[in-house]
Amino acid sequence: MADLLPQELRILVAVAETGGFTAAAARLGIGQSAVSHSVRGSERKVGAVLFERGRAGASPTPAGERVVALGRRILRMYEVLGAEARAAGRAGPDRDEPAGTLRIAAFRSAALHLLPPALERLTIRHPGIRPEVRVVRELGAGTAGEVAAGRADLGIATLNPEDPVPPGLLTGVLAHEAYALVHPVGHPDPRALSLLDWDENCGSRTRDWWRAQDWIPSATVKAQDDAMVLTMVGRGLGMAILPELSLREATDAVQIVALGPEGPVRQVGYVTTPESASTLAVRALIRELRARKG
Questions:
Q1: Is the model's pLDDT at 294 over the cut of 50?
Q2: Which of 38, 61, 91 is the last residue of a domain?
Q3: I need a labelling partner for 43 at 20 to 30 A (CA). Which of 71, 148, 160, 182 fits?
Q4: What single-letter DSSP state applies at residue 163?
Q5: Which neighbouring-strand residues pair with 3?
Q6: What CATH number is associated with residue 15?
Q7: Could you tell me the residue range of the domain that residue 21 belongs to?
Q8: How far apart are CA 192 and CA 214, in angstroms?
Q9: How far apart are CA 271 and CA 146, in angstroms?
Q10: How many domains does the chain have?
Q11: Statement: the pTM of the whole predicted model exceeds 0.90
Q12: Nearest 5°: CA angle at 75, between 157 and 69?
């Protein structure tokens, strides 16, 4: 099979992200016929149809989704290549000094509480690094999916053995978070309250623990995120079971009760690709995440 060239990869990514050949051509500043010709050539090279064409535009086939994801990752390494080479070519104390954009995906409470101190230390030690953080809900593919798709160099994710990350990614555990019961302060019988929950309160292990507790009501009230859950608990609208990162935003309106050694625990860690794991910037960020304080 002939190799796909960088420009061919850029065209495939543009078609997938814009949803059509015409829109991709406008983004790239080339003709629509050039996009069509390139996509057909790429499909011949890989031996698979990469896009379903229709009046509504073009959408990736399963083969196309895989090629586009790997294409993003390959193009990202082209971007990183120059920065890595320049760092290796410098002499003296600046040798191997990381620089350039570092793309990070994180779920909300990690972006608020886990990342900032690590990024503060990172940018002080390596002022040439420019972090870009996107908050991604831990639903479906979540932050690990952003890394697998080539949209992030590193993701902060919840790691569950029962729900493994996409194959081929590298992970590392950063913290084990215990869950706690949260209820309105001073409530005489918090277990009689409705259970407040949110979609990202994840992990089949946690769900199994919940199902085994006969004191937790089966009917739940859903909120958009953990901050909304805390606010609703503080207003006396129910009780909740939340992990430690979420509880850092707790106010005096709520009371936190430990669930003991048998209570659920979630793992929070990083996810990256093998190629990104070897880059100076990602290695530097992992060091700072592991060295976090508090």
A1: no
A2: 91
A3: 148
A4: B
A5: none
A6: 1.10.10.10
A7: 1-91
A8: 12
A9: 10
A10: 3
A11: no
A12: 50
